[in-house]
Amino acid sequence: MIKVGIIGATGYAGGELVRILTAHKQAEIKWYGSRSYIEQQYASVYRNLFQIVDAVCMDDNMKALADEVDVIFTATPQGLCASLVNEEILSKVKIVDLSADFRIKDVSVYEKWYGIPHPSPQFIEEAVYGLCEVNRERVKGARLIANPGCYTTCSILTAYPLAKEGLIDMSTLIIDAKSGTSGAGRGAKVPNLFCEVNENMKAYGVATHRHTPEIEEQLGYASGEKVLLNFTPHLVPMNRGILVTEYAKLTREVCEEEVRTIYEKYYGREKFIRVLEKDACPETKWVEGSNYVDVNFKIDPRTGRIILMGALDNLVKGAAGQAVQNMNLLFGLEEAEGLDLVPMFP
Fold it and tell me: Which end of the chain is more exposed for a tag (fewer CB within 10 A), N or C?
């Protein structure tokens, strides 16, 4: 059994990690870390786990944790994992970090967009960006995984095949994204109160959202060129889900069959990426509670553009599910172990 420790186990992503790992046949959670609930029963925080998890919350002592487990998940705010990790810890344990601390390779870009100094830039270069469908082989040999977030996973995977094949003009790419409120975390914030969110939609982080450089960097690797794009997120009054709609100019005239062949080339063998049938638009309700990403496209010959669409559950494939997928790869397990989650409806 793989011994697991979680730091940040009582946030939404941490709670989803616990939910998924309790059904994992080859993993056992040894440490439920939470600064806010030390010595409290975990099931008193998440009562859906009553009589399923019989453990108390502990602190976030990564040094002590590294001696007790095989892998540590850090579902924590930006800066915390980077402030705790060191060479001694990495020599003992694998780390899957769900924050953005090691996702961006240029430390100056990280510090500019996140507004904090990076505590351990020496580990940025070796950290593997844990987008499993793109970096699967690199993940397998890593010590430190930078687990991508929800907006970035959906935005990148939706455009990746066409960026890789040079079929879209990357300088024209615009990404319009929508997220459920759980994407903002479990902390008490006035903008996330029911009366603020219900019956309302709003854009935020317009031209300044911190996931922008991460999407640009990864699509830059795919396309082989520097990418500069517009990314605009929106908050919608639902618990879970990410929906992205992306617009780009085509580099040449193409037909439906050719584009579909390209998507099948990259995703035809991927369990967790579902390329929908012609004219079907991805919807968040059909991926909720699952590790699936639904993608599709529509060519607009009138404008010479292509419209790309993707949907995923922000807490599963956009966070905890992808983290478990990375863990499975790290330890040579079946990649889908613990993740055969049929989407929930209604």
Answer: C
